[in-house]
Amino acid sequence: MEVRVRALESLLVEKGYVDPRAIDLLIETYETRVGPRNGAQVVARAWSDASFRKWLLEDATAAISSMGFEGRQGQHMVALENTPRVHNMVVCTLCSCYPWPVLGLPPTWYKSAPYRSRAVIDPKGVLADFGVTLSNGVEVRVWDSTAEVRYLVLPQRPEGTDGWTEEQLAALVTRDSMIGTGLAQKVDRA
Fold this sequence. Notes:
By secondary structure, this protein is mainly α.
């Protein structure tokens, strides 16, 4: 695949259709300014700052924007909080609406027809496929992302993280935990 991408890039540059600096800028943007690390910073701030958490749950677009994460596919954000009794999971049943500024590019499975249909029909089965087992009695809520509304799941903060810095907390947040198909990483007590 990498060889094909390089060949296509070379051909497009050679024909004058693409400026190599534009490609470099695009890659740099998705590696350093857009992606799951941004969402992890949002989650870590919400875990460590109660007023920010409240703001995020009331107006996610503004709260996220205040951290400098905004742009295409980042408008009209809603944050969903996982609790001991409710687990939220996000899907886009029509296509692949996804909050790029906080999660980066959508994973291939997110755009797949099997995920899009099964997440609605059998959410606990999908969670099991991702290795997530919830306690009995936990309600799973599935949210359908659209062009008008995109969701960010605020996963539960792992036990044993009191006093941690936002940077330490952010390292526990995964892309999948912000979609709801995963959980935040547990603290290694070794």
